[in-house]
Amino acid sequence: MDSVLFRCLPHASSHTAVTGGDFCRTRHCAAISYASSYGPNASCNQRKVQNEYSCLRLRKPSLNHHYKGIGGGYTFQKYDIKFVVKATSEKSFGSESQAFDPKSVLDSVKNSLDAFYRFSRPHTVIGTALSIISVSLLAVEKISDISPLFFTGVLEAVVAALFMNIYIVGLNQLSDVEIDKINKPYLPLASGEYSFGTGVAIVSSFSILSFWLGWIVGSWPLFWALFVSFVLGTAYSINVPLLRWKRFAVLAAMCILAVRAVIVQLAFFLHMQTHVYKRPPVFSRPLIFATAFMSFFSVVIALFKDIPDIEGDKIFGIQSFSVRLGQKPVFWTCVSLLEIAYGVALLVGASSPCLWSKIFTGLGHAVLAAILWYQAKSVDLKSKASITSFYMFIWKLFYAEYLLIPFVR
């Protein structure tokens, strides 16, 4: 009878662990079995225990059948279910996180923007935008001229010019992929972030957008500024017979001077003067000063930009002044030209009839000249990083000059 009890109770506990709902009924079975073993009516009670045990045995196959459908049996049932659920859930959530991970999408967007930022050569973009805004202010004769009409005219010019700027710097990178792998390996085409086809698509798109915007604006000074910039920028970079003028130091300097010193100053001033304000063209004293000063500055930029790139230029036969004369003579020539330009600006400021113009132009150019000389003495001409850093400092001086030009009167 003890063996009967022993076999009855484990099944009862297993049944309780799995189902949970028949716990009270199973305890009742165990209690009856225990009482019947020691009660006075043992034979009668024994039959009752056998009936209860038979009842449990009859219920067991149905339970086994139910769990075999999921896969296991009594002993491994719980483990099997956990394993299947865990594996399925991990795979499902893992695939979903890879497909819809917001962080991954955000990183991809950031990388794309960073690549385009480097491709557009941001120091030239900033210089173009500042120069157009500064020259546009030279056309302002009275406070009422600063109106929505002024801001619309400036915005049209800036956007069209920036589109053309991206075309020019992008074409230069397409033509110099192998050189940039040595001189500027961080650029997207040189590093492989952009394919050649991607670069062509960007350059083509921005040139079309620039001309389209210039055409619908209807300003002839703006359109001709874009067209001349397109021609000179193409001739400077593209590698076809009679072109690729960047190979020749004088032609390269003349291209940059024509765009940065002449086209930007005259064409965008005339855009504001004749198209926006509908006034007759004039060549004022501030405009002449801006053109002359930026001619010096453009020559300096044309000369200095080749100093840190001397290694790649030598390998690919680019006969820049830095390759032909050496880095040190070209470096100090650039510094001297800028100091001369600042000296002329001091004289122009001193001769101004306006007191506020004397103060701003005179003091401003004196401070810039002093900072330039101080920075130039600390440059290590044997370090490419030091030279490149000073080149970017020259661009900062370029930006600062366009902040001072509107005060020249």
UniProtKB/TrEMBL annotation:
Keywords: Chloroplast, Membrane, Plastid, Transferase, Transit peptide, Transmembrane, Transmembrane helix. It is a multi-pass membrane protein. GO terms for molecular function: prenyltransferase activity. One of its GO terms (cellular component) is chloroplast membrane. It comes from the Eukaryota. Pfam families: UbiA. The chain crosses the membrane at residues 122-140, 149-174, 194-215, 222-242, 248-270, 282-304, 330-348, 355-376, 388-408. Belongs to the UbiA prenyltransferase family. This is Homogentisate phytyltransferase. The gene is Vigan.01G480100.
